[in-house]
Design goal:
By secondary structure, the chain is of the alpha/beta class. A seven-stranded mixed beta sheet has the order 3-2-4-5-7-6-12, sandwiched between helices. A five-stranded mixed beta sheet has the order 9-11-10-13-14, sandwiched between helices. Strands 15-16-18-17 form a four-stranded parallel beta sheet, with helices on both faces. Helix 17 links the parallel strand 17 and strand 18. Helix 1 runs parallel beside helix 6, helix 3 runs parallel beside helix 4 and helix 14 packs parallel to helix 15. It is globular, with a radius of gyration of 27 Å. The two termini are 38 Å apart. The relative contact order is 0.08. The structure holds thiamine diphosphate (TPP). The site of thiamine diphosphate (TPP) has 22 residues, from helix 4 and helix 15.
Length: 615
């Protein structure tokens, strides 16, 4: 990963959209930044973590997004600038704080970055977080390019302080993950002296909250005026003047530019960068000169409905085209082809629109994701498989690398919803069904939002086995530390939560800890715990193999191979364990020496003792 400190003011530097956001934050003089990792937002936090001590601001990976936002609010109440970033579903977790923060107002500028994921590249849904700007009453900016990512963060801090409101920056996967040349400015250390202003009304008791709501509406009126005069909302002309128009935001703007040029259209594009509140006056004057206007926005027809309402209020005779008219689908992200087809339907042959909802990857052969060689999660699932032979448990699962246990060869995921939900779902299932229930949750996910479910289970006498897959890191999003890690966000030693003691403190009598690489013991413990009539917790603890290898600088043990003279071709290693280092080709089972990391689990899995140290 590049350092976001590279480049002198005025230099062009190659940056990822997310790195440009981080650079924008340090050019704005932030004093504090927080995040809970999640694709497509992770690189914002990861690049800030790396340079926080050099630049002199505080950075942390918080336990979850709500806490990340609250920590940022604390810094803002001290009069300092703070940035918090998260993936789109993270905003749901932070929403309780966010929806009241707009009433409370802020001290120092506070910017919340929400990275949305149209097409669910790495998410469980494709929710459109532009709704949060309307829902919470928070101004929103939407960059389309890495340069805009940097510039808009700086503008967002100014705006936040001008309005005394948090400001949201909303990206999508394409914006966060595209790379481009970015003209950088000067890195600014925080120069403000922190001070808590005791005269500011920051207690949202009902009489104050009622007044604050009315103040919020006034602030949003002011924000609308600022949106109207903002250069972030601008007209781009392609070809000669015409009565055709396009209103576009975010990545949609890039596709639209390309498609309009390819089709040789004469058209004006109103590019919306300050997307909430929409610039009403600008839209009115744009619509006045047009006969047909296509609205280009991924996911929900949000601008489209608002713009159609503006047109109707003004009695304009202009066709507003978009999703409601069938020119686009509400599904997935756009592509240049989708744009070209929508534009030609809207402007060239006038045919009713097409709905091209096909996701480009639908045509490609499916390659199911697999766990890494040596992954302790595979070993845990294998142990559960052995321990539950002849039983039909229900397996609520959760979100992380271990979610792959829901796939072949384990098939141990009967329900998976959102972070932390495995515990709660297990509880409802256990109260209503007689079947054995084994829920899985990762360590980072447990701290994030699984703990509350467990406390609920203990108090309300639920009955299930909770397996905490403790690989000592947040592996799925790039090995970020969490409160159970013994290092902090900068890699310095830090106090870690004692998970067993904490859970015993909650009221679980005996917390069992297994090493998943020790298959025999793991199976015995799981069998034992399935006999309990109360909630039972098993911590399956082994560091993520990738992390362990990176830290040790070498693989875990001696590489394995299969003795072909002993192998009975039973397939237990491939079909049972599913380690990607083991394969079968025309009935010959083999271990790829370049993939094997020497975890030894396959030795224990093979019923014929055909696997051992490679000679
Ligand atoms: C609300 C929310 N925030 C962030 C994410 C991104 N995310 C998915 S799983 C995960 C944590 C994975 O860590 P852990 O539970 O320790 O499992 P591991 O991947 O290490 O097996 C994160 C941060 C998400 N899906 N939802």
């Amino acid at each position: 990963m590049r350092s976001i400190l590279q480049g002198k003011p005025g230099n062009d530097v190659l940056l990822l959209g997310n790195e440009a956001i981080a650079r924008g934050a340090i050019e704005s003089g932030i004093a504090l930044a927080t995040t809970y990792p999640g694709t497509p937002a992770s690189e914002i936090g990861d690049s800030l973590a790396r340079i926080a001590s050099d630049v002199g601001f505080y950075f942390e990976y918080s336990v979850n997004e709500k806490v990340a936002l609250e920590v940022a609010i604390g810094a803002s109440l001290s009069g300092l600038r703070a940035l918090t970033s998260m993936k789109h579903v993270g905003v749901n977790v932070a929403a309780d704080a966010l929806l009241s923060l707009s009433y409370m107002g802020i001290g120092g500028g506070l910017v919340l970055v929400s990275a949305d994921d149209p097409a669910c590249h790495s998410s469980q849904n494709e929710q459109d977080n532009r709704y949060y700007s309307r829902f919470a009453g928070v101004p929103m900016l939407e960059p389309s390019s890495p340069q805009e990512c940097l510039d808009m963060v700086k503008i967002a801090f100014e705006l936040s302080e001008q309005l005394s409101l948090p400001v949201m920056i909303r990206t999508t996967t394409r914006v966060s993950h595209s790379t481009g040349l970015v003209k950088v400015g000067e890195v600014r250390k925080n120069a403000r002296i922190p001070a808590f202003d005791r005269t500011r009304e920051t207690i949202l008791l009902p009489p104050i909250a009622r007044r604050k709501h009315s103040e919020l509406l006034q602030k949003l009126d002011h924000a609308r005026e600022l949106s109207d005069s903002s250069t972030l909302n601008r007209i781009v002309k392609i070809g000669r003047a015409s009565s055709l128009g396009l209103i576009a935001s975010s990545a949609g703007f890039n596709y639209a530019m390309e498609a309009c040029q390819d089709l040789g259209l004469d058209i004006e594009i109103l590019k919306i960068g300050f997307s909430y509140p929409l610039p009403n006056e600008r839209i009115v004057s744009f619509l006045k000169t047009k006969k047909r206007v296509l609205i280009v926005e991924e996911l929900e027809p949000l601008m489209e409905k608002e713009i159609r309402a503006i047109s109707e209020e003004n009695d304009f005779d202009v066709d507003i085209l978009g999703k409601d008219t069938g020119h686009f689908s509400q599904l997935y992200e756009y592509t240049p082809d989708i744009l070209a087809s929508a534009l030609s339907c809207a402007f060239l042959d006038g045919k009713p629109g097409v709905r091209d909802t096909k996701k480009p990857s639908d045509d490609l052969p499916q390659r199911p994701p697999v766990m890494c060689p040596g992954c302790p999660h595979s070993a845990t699932y294998y142990a559960v498989k052995l321990a539950t032979r002849g039983m039909k448990p229900i397996f609520p699962n959760d979100i992380g690398c271990y979610s792959l246990g829901a796939e072949q060869p384990f098939n141990m995921g009967d329900a998976m919803l959102c972070m932390g939900a495995s515990t709660g779902m297990a509880e409802g299932l256990s109260k209503t069904l007689p079947d054995p229930i084994i829920a899985f949750i990762g360590d980072s996910t447990f701290y994030h939002s699984g703990m509350t479910g467990l406390i609920n289970a203990i108090h309300n006498r639920h009955r299930f086995v909770l397996m905490i897959l403790d690989n000592k890191t947040t592996a799925m999003t790039g090995h970020q530390p969490h409160p159970g890690s013994n290092v902090n966000s900068q890699g310095e030693p830090a106090p870690s939560v004692n998970l067993e003691k904490a859970i015993e403190g909650f009221g679980v009598e005996e917390v069992r800890v297994i090493d998943p690489y020790d298959l025999k013991h793991s199976v015995e413990v799981i069998k034992d715990e399935l006999q309990r009539k109360t909630v039972s917790v098993i911590i399956s603890r082994k560091a993520c193999a990738l992390l362990e290898i990176a830290e040790r600088g070498k693989i875990l043990g001696a590489r394995r191979s299969i003795d072909q003279s002993v192998c009975k071709k039973c397939g237990t290693c491939v079909e049972g364990l599913g380690c990607p280092a083991i394969s079968r080709q025309e009935n010959i089972y083999d271990i790829d020496e370049h993939l094997c990391v020497g975890c030894t689990v396959c030795d224990q899995v093979c019923p014929h003792k055909a696997i051992g140290v490679r000679k």
